[in-house]
Amino acid sequence: MRHAEAAIVTSELCHAGRPFALAALARWCSRGPVYLVDETGARRDVRARDLMRWSMQVAAEPVQRRWFIRDVRRRVEREWQALGDRQCVPADLTLPCAYLRTDLSFHVRAGGSVGHISGVINNLQAFGLRPVFITTDRVPTVDPAIPTHLVCGSERFWNYRELPAFVMDCVFGERADDVLRQQRFGFIYQRASLNNFAGVRLARRHKLPLVLEYNGSEVWISRHWGAHPLQYAELSTRIDALNFAAADLVIVVSDPIKEELRSRGVDPRKVLVNPNGVDPERYTPQIDGTAIRRRHGFGAQVVFGFIGTFGAWHGAEVLADAYVRMLQRRPDLRATTRLFLIGDGLRLARTKAIIASSAEASANTVFAGLVPQSDGPACLAACDVLVSPHVPNPDATPFFGSPTKLFEYMAMGRAIVASDLDQIGQVLRHDASAWLVPPADAEALAAGLAHVADDAALRQRLGTEARRDAVAKHSWREHTRRILDALPSAAIARPQQPESRQEER
User: Fold this and answer.
1) Strand intervals (E) in 48-184
2) Which domains does the chain possess?
């Protein structure tokens, strides 16, 4: 009771959820009001009745959890049974498209998902489809002229690891159904997310074709890159299979993902491999990076740049190791090169530790932290060489990614040093549009960095060719055009449902 008031600050009140423990602590600290406030200044008081309601929910949910999961299983099986009665309807491209962003991640302001979502939805509008954006989070790079409906999260099961996604499936489906009842739509486009099959129900209910964008298995990701494997992995896999079976067209970003779907029984005729892309007008060599170079004291040095969320697959630690090795073997490059690392995420601490192990690398490295997506092009423009040090999958399966940073690098017209890894090695051409090195090989990467740093003419040649390829083949405009071209032939017979496994987890 020491303080006059206590505020719990969140990015948006809509997604504050149920901060029970934090609110109880704030209540104990304050003799006055306790409230939630977001970055817009919107405020919601936390009263005694809120704490009472939350405490009752927390007490009851451990008992309710098993019944809730059983209900989810029943709803999934009902949708499987309904698939046989659903007619294949062609997309009407004269009507608006409903774009569903169902992820349970909030306040995402940078990264590949931001670029992909805005790249597709903005260009759907450019092709005259008048998209309507139904989303769990605002995406800053989506054209503000596009009608947007924000779906708020529910308090129910908020403090559990996986259950909020099942809850969001219900909440999102109800909110999106209200939107779809207001006007006619030509098709539904859903960006697949964990444990969400709202698009399946909406497509059946409104007799619309469903386009599913699938970027990889969340079950696999949790097992190999996550802190904990999914507790309800069998149910999550069943929901994935339902989404694939119901979709009229499945968009994937790489051949390995298409092969994964084929091995899971998905008809390859309805799978479109469509690599990620870039807006070549937003990412362009014409952007001036002088101010950022001046801010960090880069001068005339050759700057190696990396931007990303420091995921397990990004290889930022390999880049840090390679830079340390390069400076050890080439003392002459200590005065003429810098390393510029932009972003934040899981592997940032490990990357910083590697850099800190070398006094020379520490003195030459700048960690810029997370920057908004809109500031990314200027940061890249401050670099002379852009590095994509992606590493293979830990279980030796093919690398299924299509890094958005790769196409942004290309559009910037800067020299690229990259891992020769699956799609990366297919999009880039060694000694033509990039300098390719074996993946996860710090020695080879160090040699590649030094080679490109030594040759200004090579940097110019590689950057010019990469920019040419990006504009000709890898714009979001072309990415979206390929989706629309595939739609008329997308409605084909659906496969038989796989046998269900009902055991409880």
Assistant:
1) 97-101, 132-135, 148-150
2) 6-66 (no CATH), 69-277+482-489 (3.40.50.2000), 290-474 (3.40.50.2000)
